[in-house]
């Protein structure tokens, strides 16, 4: 805390000038590079310059297949996570064997921390210090690897004990079960024109599930809910919470998926914005969110008394999307059975993989151009090994900067905040873009890296990446445990060039799953992928 505070103050005062100077120097060098006037070329670790790197090309395989670092010690392969601890086991069991809560009323907010499966506590505003100082979370005691998350999804999807049986049957249950059977017996797809097989856990399953969603899925949107917190996507079409507005807008205007007849609906959408909720109802410096929680709770009371659908499934076929940091805490209680699509997807808090859906955070600068200046350099023109820039939020970034911002290696560009133009340029010129958690696990950098063709390096223990249900994230991103930050460079340079080139290609292939489209959404785009994850989890929790 102390260190962090000091760093933050420093960051605003003296370091500012130093940083500006650094940025100017870097920009200068890069500017020269860009214009190809520079006699310098950025030297790669070990031996040889970047210009020797070639992209995938049959004639240059031997060059590609050299590692970035020829000279240093044997490459340290990414260490497997330590999964042997008892605490992990019990933690996993807790999530896997816990049936969803059956109370629609839920527990009181003040008590939920008592039942938290481990000591990772969410921020509670009441105990915040003065001056809007945020409580900085501590590192999690238990780290769940991506492989373990994948296994947790499979387990949850094959165990009826984890799902709530509806109180009474309906035609839609049968349709979901039929879809489930069809997906499980999907015809083998080896190659597909629009899907690149290495990106998926199982392309046959994904393709079948997606097509069945297109053919089958009907979503009902409740008309209840006052503007602007409900039903007003226009209010939140840009900024870091813009995914809320974009999803709401496309969902509420979907010709394909909407139904006006709730008895035909497989899913019920609760159309609110967690960001606008905070903007409209949070009393500045009140350190109290009870009114926000109450507001959302009243909404559930309203729809549960006006319609039979909530009571039928106790909310488990209802979903919402929410990107604000507070959304997980605000949607406990009655919302816990819902499919909660959260940007702050932290499996160490109460995000339930296989039920909840990781909602991609997309930073939108202009709502007319939601995907930004998509693009970036070819691998051989990516002269920087790793790039990060950002405010010193949370506990991970100070460690990252402490370790890497003032080291002699010129290929590590790890900064405090820099200007937006340079930020984008670095993303387009770097091989790896570090997505380090801020106050919470999520960061807009994950999608940014992908859109700029930079292989994401996720340093955020217990973050559940978007579309994990179907995407094989480890095939195109690197997950570095927080405790391995000192080894960051070693880990990255140990990735052979041929492997890097392959990962980068996959990053380009996965871009379409992270792009918004105005008007009519496009097949396999981010809107459809979010909806697909919700559909997929619903289908596989219907027994
Ligand atoms: C760099 O490579 C050259 C030949 O390609 C070799 O002679 C030289 O020793 C290498 N330097 C280092 C530091 O490995
Ligand atoms: C591979 O390299 C050859 C010779 O340098 C070149 O003619 C060809 O266009 C390259 N192919 C690709 C896919 O870059
Ligand atoms: C895993 O953790 C346990 C207990 O913390 C420790 O005894 C064991 O040596 C660790 N294993 C590895 C491979 O690090
Ligand atoms: C939390 O709930 C438990 C039982 O559900 C109760 O015994 C305990 O007093 C509650 N704690 C608080 C702080 O309300
Ligand atoms: C589900 O619960 C029942 C009864 O509690 C138990 O007998 C059964 O083994 C459980 N199934 C699984 C897959 O754990
Ligand atoms: C993918 O799923 C299909 C359908 O369940 C199955 O037949 C196939 O073996 C799976 N492929 C892989 C690579 O797991
Ligand atoms: C749903 O259940 C709640 C609480 O059990 C009850 O108050 C409400 O009237 C029920 N809704 C309907 C439509 O029956
Ligand atoms: C492109 C290419 O030739 N890649 C090869 C590099 O080396 C690894 C193993 O050392 C092979 O598996 C790749 O096929």
From TrEMBL:
Subcellular location: Golgi apparatus membrane
Xref: Pfam families: Exostosin_GT47
Membrane spanning residue stretches: 18-35
Record carries keyword Transmembrane helix: yes
Major site of localization recorded for this protein: Golgi
GO function terms (MF aspect): glycosyltransferase activity
Stretch list, region Disordered: 95-131
Membrane topology: Single-pass type II membrane protein
Keywords assigned by UniProt, alphabetized: Glycosyltransferase, Golgi apparatus, Membrane, Signal-anchor, Transferase, Transmembrane, Transmembrane helix
Every Exostosin GT47 domain range: 214-493
Ranges of biased composition (kind: Polar residues): 96-119
Any coiled-coil regions, as ranges: none
GO cellular component: Golgi membrane
Family, similarity comment: Belongs to the glycosyltransferase 47 family.
Protein name: Glycosyltransferase
Classification of source organism: Eukaryota, Viridiplantae, Streptophyta, Embryophyta, Tracheophyta
